[in-house]
Design a protein that fits this description.
Layout: H1 2-22, H2 34-48, H3 59-70
Helix pairs in contact: 1-3
């Protein structure tokens, strides 16, 4: 479990970096891409499990998550 949580934490750092580099709010562009669609189930599941605290110090991920939930396809 600890190893899995560490991998997820590293993924969150990569996500934050990608959002920052793209200018956000999405991972690679001004509109959602397949990268965002691919990450959405994992992040939603983390939130379902009460793991949102893992990105409490990553405001770009919080904004990304809000944008995902607000998207009509969600």
């Amino acid at each position: 479990m600890n190893a899995a949580l560490e991998r997820l934490a590293r993924t969150l750092v990569r996500m934050e970096d990608a959002i920052s580099a793209s200018g956000g709010p999405w991972l690679r562009a001004r509109a959602p891409t397949l990268a965002d669609v691919a990450m959405m189930p994992a992040i939603v599941r983390m939130a379902d499990l009460g793991l949102e605290t893992m990105w409490k110090d990553k405001p770009l991920i919080a904004r990304w998550f809000d944008a995902i939930r607000a998207h009509p396809a969600f």
